[in-house]
Design goal:
- There is one protein chain.
- The chain has 402 residues and is of the alpha/beta class.
- It has a domain of 197 residues: FAD/NAD(P)-binding domain, CATH 3.50.50.60.
- The protein has eleven helices and 19 strands.
- The strands form three sheets. Strands 1, 2, 3, 9, 10, 11, 12, 18 and 19 form a nine-stranded mixed sheet that branches.
- A hairpin with a 3-residue loop joins β11 and β12.
- The longest helix is centred in the C-terminal third of the chain and has 21 residues.
- The structure holds flavin-adenine dinucleotide.
- The site of flavin-adenine dinucleotide (FAD) has 38 residues, from α1, β13, β17 and α6.
């Protein structure tokens, strides 16, 4: 079933990509290949789905609109311990990661509290390098990766979907982010509630406390979320996100936030960010339906992000794997159609949605300042940052549904 050669294709018109070397690039003719799954998007949800499907023996292609998967990123890319230890991400080369073992939580007045849990850690990432490695892994597993190839639409062809120039497929997976083209094309609602985050990357800088994930609470710069800073393998990243209102959306004041905290972070006045990342983060929970007629949405496209922490990498990864497992179980073993199985295996984040509702309405700087060193606040913060996340095995979760 598996294609025999690893393949990454980049259209001739696309700008040179780091993958554009003789060893990894092969150009497909406009083909009518038959696939079991075509995945749109080569980020976390798409890579997880494509990799799991290929490892299950399915024929898989991936379309990614960027010609360099490490370019124009919107994510900070901090990976929680569970994702590092239980997913394929943990196999990335060591130079992609830097370990951060505790959290420093700052009040609006910049008083701070140290939080940690024995054995727990986060990994900050050289995210561009990680994304390029993921695409190499896809190619190594026989996935046909088409870079610089945006999804526009697909046509029905019997019981399959046909994408011109790519081929036909039994299943199409939209893992193309919070503003999913696949969802729009299929007329699915897609996420409507968002946080909006902006981040600066400063190459070569070192934080005074590099072992901490620095988190800043306060309505002035981050109503509904946080500001943050962390040491990465390549320097310092700092960012801020806020709850995006449907009417009159605001842009996070990243420069104002930087001016407020730079003395704590040791960012010199003349430091210039090497790059800026920005994007929407769904925070309203999964959006149903998640698909129909052989099309499924994964990760941010499906709203599968923690509504409180906005951590989407681990949940996108698990969701992508769940979809692949459901498709494989259906095609190989005649199990229920993935359109039925996947929604039942998708986390609803009910408690976190309730917390999000409370946070949106009741955030109070004075209360936070007053409670900073109190046992209830420490307990709640420990739970948010370090609680044991439930392990969701794609195959097991789907298999348990019948
Ligand atoms: C500023 C910011 C910081 C964040 N920090 C963290 C963090 O530290 N830790 C964490 O866990 N989560 C974080 N998140 C959330 C996390 O980044 C997302 O939840 C996660 O990236 C979702 O992965 P995904 O694969 O579903 O979508 P995305 O990462 O959005 O990937 C979508 C992919 O689809 C491609 N694509 C889009 N349209 C098309 C098209 N038409 N055709 C082909 N390809 C297309 C895109 O180029 C992209 O590669 C952050 C988000 C933001 C905005």
């Amino acid at each position: 079933m598996m294609p025999t050669r690893p393949a990454v294709s980049v259209p001739k018109s696309a700008s040179a990509s780091p993958l554009d070397s003789a060893s990894t690039v092969s150009r497909f003719p406009a083909s009518t290949a038959d696939y079991d799954v075509i995945v749109v998007g080569a980020s976390f949800a798409g890579a997880a789905c494509a990799l799991a499907a290929a490892r299950a023996g399915l024929r898989v292609a991936v379309l990614e609109r960027k010609s360099d998967p490490g370019a124009k990123l919107h994510t900070t890319g901090i990976v929680v311990k569970e994702a590092a230890e239980r997913t394929w991400l943990g196999r990335a080369p060591a130079h992609c990661f830097r370990r951060v073992e505790h959290v420093r939580l700052y009040s609006p007045a910049l008083r701070s509290l140290r939080l940690d849990a024995p054995g727990y850690y986060f990994l900050t990432t050289d995210t561009p390098a990680l994304m390029r490695w993921l695409v190499d892994e896809l190619a190594r597993h026989g996935v046909a990766v088409h870079l610089g190839t945006p999804f526009v639409q697909a046509m029905r062809d019997g019981d399959r979907w046909r994408i011109p120039g790519i081929g036909r497929t039994r299943y199409l997976v939209g893992a193309d982010g919070a503003r999913s083209r696949v969802a729009a094309w299929l007329g699915l609602p897609g996420p409507r509630d968002f946080l909006y985050g902006i981040e600066y990357e400063f190459d070569g800088l070192m934080l005074p406390e590099p072992g901490a994930l620095h988190c800043f609470v306060g309505k002035r710069f981050a109503p509904g979320y946080l500001g943050w800073a962390a040491q990465t393998p390549t320097g310092v990243q700092m960012g801020v996100a806020l709850r995006r209102r449907r009417r009159g959306p605001r842009t996070p004041d990243i420069d104002g936030f930087l001016a407020r905290v730079r003395h704590l972070l040791g960012v010199p006045d003349d430091a210039v960010p090497a790059s800026t990342r920005a994007g929407l983060i769904p925070c309203g929970g999964p959006v149903l339906p998640l698909g129909r007629d052989g099309v499924l949405l994964a990760g941010d496209a499906a709203g599968v992000v923690s509504p409180v922490t906005a951590g989407g990498i681990h949940s996108a990864w698990e969701h992508g794997e769940t979809i692949a497992a459901a498709i494989a179980a259906h095609l190989r073993d005649g199990r229920p159609a993935p359109e039925r199985a996947v929604p039942r295996a998708t986390p609803r984040f009910r408690a976190k949605r309730a917390l999000r509702w409370l946070f949106d309405r009741c955030q109070s700087d004075r209360l936070f300042e007053w409670m900073l060193y109190s046992p209830p606040l420490r307990w709640a913060a420990q739970r948010l940052y370090f609680h044991r996340r439930r392990q969701r095995q794609g195959g097991a979760a789907v298999g348990a549904l019948d």
